[in-house]
Structures are given as C-alpha cells and as structure tokens.
Design a protein that fits this description.
This protein has 395 residues and is of the alpha+beta class. It is built from ten helices and 24 strands.
C-alpha cells in the first residue's frame, strides 16, 4: 500500500478487518493498494487473531486491527515528516474558531481530542486532533486529513447530546480507541489551510471552574519544542522558528473540569479576532521551571562516579527569553536546561565527573540535601549522555 507524501510503501495482508481499520484511521490521507517493486518501510502480517507489525526502526509489535492501524499512522506520519524536512509539524489538536486555528499543544490525557470532537459537534472545524503541519512561513496550519481518534471510555461528565454525536460519528473502535467519521464540514480536507490564531495549553482538573491564565513565552516554547515532530532541520534554526511562532501568537493556559463548559468558553473567547479574554489576575506558568525533558535510557548506575565527561562538539548553548537550551545541529536535538543543568553545563567546559559536579554544586547550594543534588546531577548527566551532548573521557 502506498501513502501520499511519503514515497514509501507498506506491506499489508489482504485482511478486510485490517483494511477497514486503516481506511478509518487515515481518513482523507490518500492511500491505495499498489503492485510495486519497492522495499516496504513497514511490514504487517497476520498472526492468529492479531497482527505483527515491523516498524521502520525494526521493532516488532503485536496488536489488534485498530492498534495496528494506529501504529501505521505513526509510521506514515514519520515518513511524511522525513520527506518534508523543512516543514514544522506539531503534536497538537487544532480547531478553526472564528476563522483562525486555535492550537492545543498539550500533553497526553489533557483531553484535547475529546474537546476537539465536542467543538466539532458545535459546528466548528477540526484541522487535526493529534497532528498539524505548518505551511511555509509558519503562519498557517495545514490539515493532514487524519481521522480524529478518541480514547475509550468517554469522560463520564460528557453530556448526552455530545456523547450521542460522538457515538454516531464512530466508524471503528476496539473498546480502547475509536476513530471518528465526522460529517461534512467538521473535518478539514487534507491540504486545507487556515491562519494560526492562538496557542492554548490545557490543564484538566478534577473540579473547579473554567479559567484562562496567561502562558508565558518560555513555558509555551518548551511545550512546542516537546510537541514538535520535525527533527531534520538544524536544531538552532528550529528553536528560532518555534520562538517566532510563540512570539507572534497569543498564549493561554485553560484550566477546566467540565468539558462542555470549557468548549463554550473557547467558542465565545475566539469568536472574533483579536480575542478578548479575561485572564486570571495572577498569570500561571507550567510547572515550577524544572526541566520536564529529563528522560533517559541510562540509569544512575550507568554513570560511573569518577569517569570524566566533556561537551561534544557541534553543541550550542542558546538563550531564548531567559531560558537555556542546548541545540545540536548535527543531530537536530534540543534539550532544555533547568538551573542544575545550566550549572553542570558550565562545569563541563572542562572534563568533569558526576561526583565532582555533585560536590561542587553541594558547596554552592548548602541548603539542599546532598542526596537530592546527587540524584539531580546523575539524571542530568544521563540525559545529556543519552542525547549525545556529552561524551566520556578516560583520564
């Protein structure tokens, strides 16, 4: 099967169940069965009642039909991004309200897909519930045509009318996820463009009213970096482009517990542009300024205490709105540094071991327990090593 905008083909078995799931997931993204002598970048085979999919990276997963279709979407989207390295693509929901796109670049389980589906039930147009490409110039969003996918079960607070609308739009599901086939005008056609309007981070809570807060530029920039799919452009250039998007658009954080109330507030707030939104008196930022990106395949034990590390070449330290980022243009890697990370990076101007760094920082911050500093230093070293920003030296 060939997929538009990728130059790749995938090998699929002739199973009606799987093909129906693929058709439902890809929505308006053109794909067709082909007889072509070309090595598939993804292979799928039937194994009992399930399917084994070998991904482009060589991993093999065994999933049901809907899960396999979902994984194929991920692989095809990755191939499309690789084929268009100059194009930004965000992991976000996007809905056209009042003629412009409101983007929700939020983390998983923030409710962005369900919120987008509910907005569609109110007559607004989804450009994507999980991914949005940007047109050249980064001022307009481009619909990819992928079908919205909702997690099951639906939120218990979802009202009857909205629930009925989503249930009627459901095309295929496996009791864990459901792909929607929205009526005309509710899902933008593939390639359709609309101007970017605003960035809204979602904060779903157990209770409390719907409130808008200002989202500061550094917090929003970190969010866009974390939710950006593009990895082929030079990292330093990517930071500049993302910063330009953040600088240009109004930025908000929406706290909510009731989805329908949140949708009504959004529809009213962005009915005309520029939006007139009453934000809470005290602007809120995401988190406490700590680095959410410290994740690594290395553990504390993998970092020898007395082994010195040094900075890798081609790594730049960039300051944007007072925030520190490492950018490696050779690998298109970006890493946000918190206060501990900045201190460690400064120390790594000379070869420095994990324990040396912990000892120096313990003297600089005597009020912080040494065990806490040791763990923080080890986490930063592990993340920097995993990203290729530092390399060990034998002394």
């Amino acid at each position: 099967m060939a997929f538009d905008d990728t130059g790749e083909v995938a090998e699929l078995p002739d199973c009606p169940e799987l093909l129906a799931a693929v058709d439902a997931a890809f929505g308006d993204w053109p794909h067709e069965r082909v007889d072509r002598e070309q090595r598939p970048f993804v292979s799928i085979r039937r194994t009992g009642a399930l399917y084994a999919i070998t991904t482009a990276s060589g991993d093999e997963l065994t999933l049901n039909a809907v899960g396999t279709a979902n994984r194929l979407v991920v692989e095809v989207l990755g191939a499309s991004i690789a084929a268009n390295p100059e194009r930004l693509c965000f992991h976000c929901a996007s809905v056209r309200i009042g003629g412009r796109l409101v983007l929700f670049p939020s983390e998983a389980r923030a409710g962005k897909s369900t919120l987008a589906a509910y907005l569609a039930s109110q007559g607004h147009e989804i450009f994507g519930d999980d991914a949005l490409a940007l047109a050249p110039g980064d001022r307009e969003g481009v619909a990819l045509g992928l079908a919205p996918r909702l997690r099951r079960p639906l939120p218990p607070t979802l009202g009857g009318a909205a629930r009925d609308y989503i249930e009627r739009a459901g095309r295929i599901d496996d009791r864990r996820y459901s792909y929607l086939d929205l009526p005309g005008g509710r899902l933008a056609k593939r390639g359709e463009q609309a101007p970017l309007g605003a960035l809204v981070l979602l904060d779903r809570r157990d209770d409390g009213p719907v409130e808008f807060f200002s989202a500061e530029r550094p917090a929003m920039l970190r969010a866009l970096i974390a939710q950006n799919f593009a990895r082929a452009a030079p990292a330093s250039t990517l930071i500049d482009r993302l910063h330009a998007v953040v600088e240009r658009l109004p930025r908000y954080r929406l706290c909510y517990s009731d989805l329908e109330e949140a949708a009504a507030v959004l529809a009213s707030a962005f009915a005309s542009w520029p939006p007139r939104i009453a934000v809470a008196e005290k602007p809120e930022t995401l988190g406490d300024g700590s680095d959410r990106s410290i994740t690594s395949s290395f553990s504390y034990a993998d970092i020898p205490p007395n082994l010195a590390f040094a900075r890798s070449t081609d790594v730049q330290l960039r300051t944007v709105d007072g925030e520190m980022f490492l950018a490696d243009d050779s690998e298109c890697a970006i890493y946000h540094l918190n206060a501990v990370g900045v201190g460690i990076w400064n120390l790594l101007d000379q070869p420095t071991s994990r324990d040396e760094a912990a000892s120096i920082l313990a003297e600089a911050f005597p009020h912080v327990e040494r065990a806490v500093i040791r763990d923080d230093v080890a986490a930063v070293y592990a993340a920097l090593l995993d990203a290729g920003f530092i390399a060990p030296l034998q002394r």
